[in-house]
Amino acid sequence: MTTTPTLGVEEEFLLVDPTSGAPVARNKSVADRAAEHGVELQLELTSCQVETATGVVTETDELREQLVRLRRTAANAAERTRAQLLAVGLPPTLPREFPVTDTPRYRDIGEMFGMIAHEQGICGAHVHVAVPDRDAAIAVSNRLRPWLPQLLALTANSAIYRNTDTGHASWRSVLWARWPSAGPPPQFGSAEEYDAAVQLLCDTGVMRDPGMVYWDVRPSANFPTVEVRVADVPATVAETVLFAALVRGCVTTALDDARRGEHTLSLAPFLLKAAYWKAARDGLDGDGVDLQNRATAPALELLEGLVDRVRPALEAAGDYELVTTGLARIAELGNGAMRQRRAWERRHDMGDVLAAAAAATLEAP
């Protein structure tokens, strides 16, 4: 068994007007306020978003503490600028516009990609897990592909968008797929093959730069990690910790399988796309696609099967009970998409959806 690797988490958040719920372009002001309390917030493509980043940790207890502190600090900073911080995959209300953050890079992306860039407000969560080298990151990416739809279903948190139920648990992932370099990662034979593909996408103008590799798993450009980016930002800290622990278990299992020379499941692109769409539509309270057996099965059963598959890695990290307990709690209370729908179905009142999202964002884990 591979030594338990370190991990870190990035979470993206939406800034909205506390009364109307409309996205507000105040990320720079919020970042300035957070910096006064020692927290550096990253500015995202659209100016109604900010991103937090934890330090490198080994224990999930420490991860939880950092996530709580970062969310609270960012929420307090937002409040001081007359905004509200929400952990949602997309704005629930009808936005007037999504202004691009005023930096040279983001202005270039806005000009290059037009409406794809200007219809954003998309918030995800990214988990970095340490790996030995970039070739190991590519091997992990190849082996994680069949599990990505289940991780998407787990974190789905964008059912309500533009004042309506989208019919999808993760509408974020559907919109995100419009980027030419987004979605499930291709299968590569080596880091060199990956680098050549990225260079080709840049040379042909499909991407502005390598930072626009938006695939749901990618080797980090700056750290010795593999980055898993498939998730909507989870509604609560507890769900983010669960997601991160499960991702680390998947990465550790993939590394062990690669060392042993275990077979990598080969997937036709159409089949993986179908499993993604099914996960985005049904989320946790419907069916998913069992890619191993080419059949449908309840999404929760597929997740429980994934937990069983990576159980040795979870136990080695001391995370097995956290993951099983967390999954049982979500089965009982629902994930972000299920909470959004329950709030919406009460009265079809957007105020209920916003209040539920705000409460979940700062819910004690």
From TrEMBL:
SUPFAM superfamilies: Glutamine synthetase/guanido kinase (SSF55931). Its EC number is 6.3.2.2. Keywords: ATP-binding, Ligase, Nucleotide-binding. GO terms for biological process: modified amino acid biosynthetic process. It catalyses: L-cysteine + L-glutamate + ATP = gamma-L-glutamyl-L-cysteine + ADP + phosphate + H(+). This is Putative glutamate--cysteine ligase 2. NCBIfam families: gshA_cyan_rel (TIGR02050), PRK13517.1-1 (NF010041). InterPro entries: GCL_type2/YbdK_subfam (IPR050141), GCS2 (IPR006336), Gln_synth/guanido_kin_cat_dom (IPR014746), YbdK (IPR011793). Belongs to the glutamate--cysteine ligase type 2 family. YbdK subfamily. Transmembrane segments: none annotated. ATP-dependent carboxylate-amine ligase which exhibits weak glutamate--cysteine ligase activity. GO terms for molecular function: ATP binding; glutamate-cysteine ligase activity. It is an enzyme of class 6 (ligase).
